Amino acid sequence: MKSRVRFTFAFDRACRTAVAALIASLDSVSGEDCARVIRAVPYERLREIDFDPDIVEFICMSAMTRNFPGRAEVLAGLKKRHGGAFRSIIGGPHASGDPRGALEAGFDYCCMGEGEEAIRDIFDCAATGLEIEGTGGVFALRDGEVVGRAREDSADLDGFDPLPRRVRFPTYIEVGRGCRWGCAYCQTPRIFGPTERFRSPELIEDMARHYVKWEMRDVRLLLPNALAYGSTRPGRAEPAALDEMLGRVRASCHGARVYLGSFPSEVRPDYVTPEAVAVLKKHVCNESLVIGGQSGSDRVLRWLKRGHAVDDIRRALDVVRAGGFEASVDLMLGFPVEEPEDRQATFDLARELGAKGARVNMHFLMPLPGTPLSGAAPRFLTGDERRKLDRLAQQGIVRGHWRKQEETAREWLDRETQDPNA
After folding, report:
1. What is the pLDDT of residue 420?
2. For the chain, how many structural domains are there in total?
């Protein structure tokens, strides 16, 4: 006799798309009991939920490094109130990069990497009484040791819908995963692999049509590098593949607005060509494109293994604006190798881009687990450098949350230094 199982997925804006993929995977195998197997609850309402003693209950959370302490606090509150009434699973970028830390924070299981197959396996194991630790991609802490095994293969994206079909849970439509570039600060290629994988235009079209049936008027497409869809060559966009996919989506949406190239799907500067920008202009509704520049120093860009130069950022801005889009450029400070002249080069580039009409989104580095910069100390800003950024902000050139990000990075570094288990 099978046990009844229920998964409660906690979500907020930061993890909504990942949660949608997990719900979609369970949705497709949970049969007619879908509503009894799956529930999605905003984080702020988790403390209000109840548990059924006759059901094997799982609480599923996802965390980035910056919000992981908050997730652990939520879990501690649930355990204090409900004791052993549930089992907890943590996934997402932070758990994938630091499974031991996630488990030592109190989570029963840690899901590393892609979770669509793992969540189905957990469902089957829980329903039949099998040990969950045997599930590929799922890890647990036993006698102080992290036990489990990684999944060997990446998910076949056309085998999993990016959105559930029976549970109304609208969010971005993820059209691809992975990144070939391996930038030193980024978790994407470490979680999803160095091979870029794309959903077929037919599946994306079908999901967009389904999306609009929910009366959603904005169809937002998600891809780590917005102009890479269908690309098979490093640094080269494939306008024909992009045109087919976007054309299918737009035709299926019946008046809904289509977005690609706006946050969080930025464009790499080396993929920006007049032909690719023209395809976007033909199909999407966003007025601005976000260009991932990252630094005004060629030395820093080489060290990061970005695969492009500062001049590529300048050229991309010119092409984007000539193609009829406004432009925002992402830049980042705080890299461990930054010297004063590198940082000044980034300030100078921000001012130069602003003079051409671009807006600069300034960020501060958070060294993330699982990346080459994991455990590194950022190069924090001096008082004079903060004042320079403030002046750029007052001039309307720079915007962003670099102050809060620097504060968070400092707090995390202090936490890791004080933690005897770190």
Report:
1. 46
2. 2
